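[job 4417] fold queue: 2 targets
>>> target A
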Amino acid sequence: MAILGNIIKGVINLTDTLTSETNHIEAQEAVLKNLLETAKETQFGKKYSFETILLSDDICESFADVVPYFDYNKINEKWWSKLHKGEVDVTWPGTPSYFALSSGTTGKSSKRIPVTDAMIDAIQSSGIKQVLSLNNFDLPADFFEKEIMMLGSSTDLQEKNDHLEGEISGISASNIPFWFKGYYKPGEDIAKIDDWDERVAHIAKNAKNWDIGALSGIPSWIELMLQEVIKYHKADNIHDIWPNLQVYTSGGVAFGPYEKSFKALLGKPVTVIDTYLASEGYIATQTRPETDAMQLNTENGIYFEFVPMNPDYIKADGSIKKSAPSLTLKEVELNQDYILIMSTVSGAWRYLIGDTIAFTDVEKAEIKITGRTKFFLNTVGSQLSVNKMDDAMKHLEEKFSTKISEYTICAKRFDDGEFYHSWYLGTDLKANKKEVADALDNFLKEANKNYKVARSKALKGVKVTIIDVEKFHNWSDQNKKKGGQVKMERVMKEKKFKKWEKFVK
């Protein structure tokens, strides 16, 4: 009998029973007030008169009126760069203990995003919320005695001046509570290995020594790790090695494009739970099985605003025009794309994280990631978001009975002077390229009226190139780094796309 598991599950059940339903609007207003109170004596707080904002009748409205939008380049140049010169109390009291390195999906050079002790606490609080929500998924008691494989970046953080640097998954894993360390795999020694391939080799070698009940990590790298473990042990699927694997906590990107290829590695179904952890904070987590939408973490150190997704509000570099209106949680509507704006306990203020989301349930504050502002393809008016591209990939998978876990696209002018959408698909599909292009084109015409209009005007057509999915992984390895928080760019500008095509050839 799973005695410990029953005790843990009983505690989760009791805690869930005692916890009342969160009023997310009130929670957000309380978070903003706390952020302003805490930071009012900082350089940023004085510049933008936080004390005066706190005295206003509508703090949310005053905050939006006074403080401008910031993307990473703008806030780093004007504010965070001061931290690297030894200044204190810049955008948050004191100095951050960590900087999260994030190349994201847009380039080789790393962003350095401050991570304060308050943010570590906020991430841990959101992690506890995720654990408590497992009560909703009807998992057996013995699940709570199994080990958890967390595949992130290296926990061997680099010392620099008075702080440590690394990717957010490595920072989070290096701060796991002492009581969790007995469950955590691959363990501290292997997690510190910086080279991703070497780390995975050690995981594969030790895999049969562990009783893994849950996996956590970005889908593309989890898949590669599972493939290596299966290959090393000459197994048919991962359940031959980890028979008690029951849960996969996905994160970083939408799971949809990876669903088919991920399931092919399993021997039996697992519960997939989506999470949304970024370098800027733990944004949302799926809390119930009836939906794959995620609930915003409205109580833990992040205040959210939402800018309606409109091409007129976005500059060419993906940043937001200062005239763009923002909405609070009490003003948003269902099934509308919004650009996500965050203010946090790490001293990010009205910060453009670069993602777009849509609400599936406003009262429960549940969302889905719909794309990236920089991946919103609007050349010649096509107005394609990443979620529409993901839907198109699912359509092709079903139509051609294949798996397409990676893709990228560029709207480029070809030698005939016309614009085409040039797609590269990571798949072993053997179908005729024109047939695939026609199926893709027809689906997008049906799914997006703007795309259909563009195809009747300046967008001449669709071109498809089919390549091995390994090319995408190798591209990430060459241009950034394997594993960790690295995600493949779905949309490329022409200059970057030329480098991509040269690399592929």
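>>> target B
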Amino acid sequence: MSPDMLIFAALCIPLLMAIGIAAAGRFPNVRESVTIVGAFILLGVVIALVADVARGGVPALDLGEAAPGLSFAFKLEPLGALFAVVASGLWIVNSFYSIGYMRGNRERNQTRFYICFALSIFGAMGIAMAGNLFTLFVFYEVLTLATYPLVAHKGDAAAKRGGRIYLLTLLGTSIGLFLTAVMWTWVLAGQNLDFVQGGLLANVEMSPVVATSLLLLFVFGIGKAALMPVHFWLPNAMVAPTPVSAFLHAVAVVKAGVFAVMKVSIYIFGTDLLYATPGREFLLGVACFTIIVASLVAMTKDNLKARLAYSTIAQLAYITAGAMLANQAGFLGGSLQIAAHAAGKMTLFMCAGAIYVATGATNISDMRGLGRRMPWVFIAFLVASLSIIGIPPMAGAWPKYELLRGAIDGGNGYVVWVLIGSSMLNIAYLLPIPILALMPPPGSPEPRPFKRPGGAPALTVAAPVFTAILCVVLFFTIGDIADFLAPALGGAAQAVMTGGQP
């Protein structure tokens, strides 16, 4: 199959799955088989595209113009290919996990749940493969609309409120700010919105005020990146079922946001213009503020999903900070964080879901000693926590290393201390959870009993164990990932990973 047809297939498969799931709604086994088979087929297509990109190819597809100068164009480059393979690969894990969770928790409206998941992965694929800002914006909105029913899935007052905040915040920022930035770019670039190596606006004459204003519109308009103060939608979205939190708010939605920030930084501004834009330093400071404040808030939360939500806000800001460092090590660190954080945080959320299905516990204070009954879940939680902290040999160590290099190379000494302080805070709010669960102090009360006979369904245990192992595997494959990303990052990724100068 030709590369352009592979892109077309990657976009069509989730839509066909949504139709198949709807048709098989009354037959749960068939419905979920459609989900699993479709997820594997999609991953196979994405892997074929990634292989083409690795060989130096640039798969592209043009579906025509929506209006003069505004075309639905798709082009897969290394950064987009990384996001596509992370999203499609972890979707398979999440699909198995969802079956165990939704059945074990006896959730209602499961057919709608799986349909919206398929539409969400359609949006994520469109974002990953977008060849211009117009296409990226359209699929960004598709992802928002497709995930809203998932956030509000439970249908109670809290779910409806969380869904409203989610929808209004993300639509408000994207239409009010992101769309304004897209239109302004279209005018400045001579009615062109293509992603260009070196930056679409690199050779456009503009004042520092204009460049700063445009950059601020982009970064704060991409609300899915959850940079403070546009972050409050994410903790409110934790009312969603845990599979939604695990995949959409640890992988697809939030990663779509920071991926978009990275794409704008590299392909719209370019390294030189971004570095020369005064607003970059301000946004770097905001990202560092977000890292520390969100980590401090996480420490105050007894509800496990709330603590993980604020942890996600802090970890996402690493990627924005990497983009705003505007050098090769910063870009590489931010890009690697997309994959490493996805594996680690998805593991943590899935562990939280397994605990809830088995015991009904949502608060950390109720989990002391629970590792005696759920050892595999809490071991997976420990491994993922170590990855988020950045301890080798876990995947999260490499992004922090590269971000530290980027901060030092850019002369941003305070960023180094922010990253070190963040790791200390990560230790403080993550490690006590698995340690007290697995090794409670003498005299601790008996752990909470299972509310479900047999405890957590096997699929809700196997999935986080798999992604915990992935946290280790990614550590040892990071060199290959850096080499793959090198063309997108100006060809210097390999030099950075081997200790050379960017």
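[job 4417] complete. Note on B: The longest helix spans residues 157-188.
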